[in-house]
From TrEMBL:
<dbReference type="InterPro" id="IPR001902">
    <property type="entry name" value="SLC26A/SulP_fam"/>
</dbReference>
<feature type="domain" description="STAS">
    <location>
        <begin position="441"/>
        <end position="556"/>
    </location>
</feature>
<feature type="transmembrane region" description="Helical">
    <location>
        <begin position="210"/>
        <end position="233"/>
    </location>
</feature>
<feature type="transmembrane region" description="Helical">
    <location>
        <begin position="253"/>
        <end position="275"/>
    </location>
</feature>
<dbReference type="Pfam" id="PF01740">
    <property type="entry name" value="STAS"/>
</dbReference>
<keyword id="KW-1133">Transmembrane helix</keyword>
<dbReference type="InterPro" id="IPR002645">
    <property type="entry name" value="STAS_dom"/>
</dbReference>
<dbReference type="GO" id="GO:0055085">
    <property type="term" value="P:transmembrane transport"/>
</dbReference>
<dbReference type="InterPro" id="IPR036513">
    <property type="entry name" value="STAS_dom_sf"/>
</dbReference>
<feature type="transmembrane region" description="Helical">
    <location>
        <begin position="352"/>
        <end position="373"/>
    </location>
</feature>
<keyword id="KW-0472">Membrane</keyword>
<feature type="transmembrane region" description="Helical">
    <location>
        <begin position="136"/>
        <end position="155"/>
    </location>
</feature>
<feature type="transmembrane region" description="Helical">
    <location>
        <begin position="329"/>
        <end position="346"/>
    </location>
</feature>
<feature type="transmembrane region" description="Helical">
    <location>
        <begin position="105"/>
        <end position="124"/>
    </location>
</feature>
<dbReference type="Pfam" id="PF00916">
    <property type="entry name" value="Sulfate_transp"/>
</dbReference>
<dbReference type="InterPro" id="IPR011547">
    <property type="entry name" value="SLC26A/SulP_dom"/>
</dbReference>
<keyword id="KW-0812">Transmembrane</keyword>
């Protein structure tokens, strides 16, 4: 049983289940289904997919994650950010005139590939990828795509056919078609949006999207919105499609894989951030590697049932916690509730007006702009705020898919910027006290006569060797004439590569020409092995390699007089 439980976390998750929890799980599951229904129908429109695919993406993935996901409380489903990246990938793929597959087939294939990437990353223990896009960069990126989502609703809320792409084009096209706006559609959308904001401001016990969907559908039935020219959802199949593997026929594999990789990185990164944000409330420990299994299973299930990529859902998880869901049964009940909706309420969903869904998407887009997080980033680190703005500009200026590339590039540049200029400090001793202290931070510390100890804080790698070499040479040039030893405190140097080893060879020669001996102290094992292979340890000599700075100090005291 234990071996089976390791592959199916649901079994271990239900161990110790109490019958009194069932009521809470059923209530939470029904609430999840109710809250998830509006977004399930609305989100597919972002990618040009039929509304039923959103329902499929809210059923099969829930079951798969309940079976294979590690969290008892996390709920997966359609996500606005992931959908926007999916829309950009689909737009790129369908720019190829030779592509004959349907959008639903390609979306399902992308879900399958994203699921496969999740499982491959799980096998390689690459959960660390969840932190590759930092929180500030993701915050900026989602703020950017939220503006793209807002502009994308112009056609839905006005009844116009908008052909322009980008952020500015649709706005100018709207200004040129003001006379053609369908006023009943616009009035309905504005009213729905106002209702959503009122529900949020006054903290309605019933979520705003549910109120809007129920009220808009009721009014549509009473006043026949379709006859008034207001667009409606239309027919929705009364059952889920049969399980099938999407066909690759006629689809170019390379752009498909690249698109899936972009979706994987964004959806997994945002999904783990969502999981961690809720972990403080649930007390669950978030293991990104285990979450890869759950997300992988959820996406493969989505693909097999004709849906699209999914990730952790903030709103559905929040409802689960609010109502008091205790286990994965809440997710299974939610899936059953949405399945019943498809089977029994298809005619009711058919007359749901599109402008109301546009209002829901516009409100969702605004919620993606986390102004609190941006303000916090500004207070904590102006540099990270700049990178958040760069990530925001990507989707706005270059499109969502290029925005992913910009976000990744911004992350790499940020990492390089933090690593290219390692800090360093000269160390000295405080009379009457043991140990070494940074001279610039300890006013009582004094340099040891004849001995210079320099602490370098950061890895020595190919992209910062020139900077470090320049600083070391400058320090040597400014040494007092009686300096005999220059010792590098390597305790804060976790890595040294071959380029850095060559640089240290050159610096040692530079010091030798000036009558100064180079020493190294507190080398990490990997760094020591690298320098041994490069021959530097042999050049320096074992007596100048020290286990600690104190050992260095005592060796130097034996080599000559010390003034302290």
């Amino acid at each position: 049983m234990s071996s089976v439980a390791s592959y199916i976390p649901l079994i271990s998750g239900l161990s110790g289940y109490r019958s009194m929890w069932l009521k809470s799980d059923v209530s939470a599951g029904l609430a999840i289904a109710a809250v998830g229904l509006p977004s399930a129908i609305a989100y597919p429109a972002l990618a040009g997919l039929p509304p039923e695919t959103g329902l499929y993406a809210s059923i099969a993935p829930l079951v798969a994650y309940a079976l294979f996901g590690p969290s008892r409380k996390l709920i997966v489903g359609p996500d606005a950010g992931t959908m926007t990246v999916l829309a950009a990938v689909l737009t790129t793929l369908f720019a190829d005139p030779g592509l004959t597959a349907s959008r639903t087939t390609v979306a399902a294939l992308l879900a399958m590939i994203v699921g496969g990437l999740c499982l491959a990353a799980r096998l390689a223990r690459l959960g660390i990828l969840a932190t590759f896009l930092s929180r500030p960069i993701l915050t900026g990126f989602f703020a950017g795509i939220s503006l793209s989502i807002l502009v994308g609703q112009i056609g839905r809320v006005t009844g116009l056919k908008i052909g322009s792409d980008g952020l500015i084009g649709p706005v100018f096209e709207l200004l040129g078609k003001l006379d053609a706006i369908h006023l009943p559609s616009l009035a309905l959308a504005v009213s729905a949006f106002a209702l959503l904001q009122a529900a949020r401001i006054f903290r309605s016990p019933i979520p705003g999207p549910i109120i809007v969907v129920v009220l808009a559908t009721t009014l549509s039935a009473m006043f026949d919105f379709e006859a008034l020219g207001i667009a409606v959802v239309g027919d929705i199949p009364g059952s889920i499609p049969p399980l099938a593997i999407p066909s690759l026929a006629g689809i170019s594999l390379q752009p498909l894989l690249l698109g899936a990789a972009a979706i994987f990185l964004v959806s997994f990164g945002s999904g783990i951030i969502a999981a961690r944000s809720f972990s403080a409330q649930t007390g669950e420990r978030v293991d990104p590697n285990r979450e890869l299994s759950g997300f992988g299973a959820a996406n493969i299930a989505a693909g097999l049932f004709g849906a699209f990529p999914v990730t952790a859902s903030d709103s559905r998880t929040a409802v689960n916690l609010l109502v008091g869901g205790k286990s994965q049964i809440a997710g299974l009940v939610a899936a059953a509730g949405l399945l019943a909706t498809i089977v029994f309420l298809g005619d009711w969903l058919r007359i749901l007006p599109i402008p109301a869904l546009g209002a829901i998407l516009a409100a969702t887009a605004l919620s993606l702009i986390d102004t609190d997080a941006l303000r916090q980033t500004w207070r904590i680190s102006r540099m990270e705020f700049v990178f958040a703005l760069i990530a925001m500009w990507g989707p706005i200026g270059l499109g969502v898919l290029n925005g992913v590339v910009i976000a990744i590039a911004a992350t790499l540049v940020y990492l390089l910027q933090k690593s290219m200029f390692p800090r360093y400090a000269i160390l000295g001793r405080i009379p009457g006290r043991d140990g070494f202290f940074k001279l610039h931070r300890a006013p009582d510390a004094l340099a040891v006569e004849g001995l210079t100890v320099c602490m370098i804080q950061g890895s020595l790698l190919f992209f910062n060797t020139d900077y470090i070499a320049e600083k070391l040479r400058a320090l040597v040039d400014d040494l007092p004439e009686d300096t005999r030893w220059f010792v590098i405190d390597a305790s804060a140097i976790p890595q040294i590569d071959s380029s850095a080893a060559i640089m240290l060879h050159e610096v040692r020669a530079y010091m030798t020409d000036r009558g100064v001996a180079l020493g190294l102290a507190e080398l990490h094992t990997d760094a020591l092995e690298m320098l041994e292979r490069s021959g530097l340890i042999e050049e320096i000599g074992r007596p100048m390699i020290f286990a600690s700075i104190e050992d260095c100090y005592h060796a130097f005291s034996l080599d000559g007089p010390i003034s302290q």
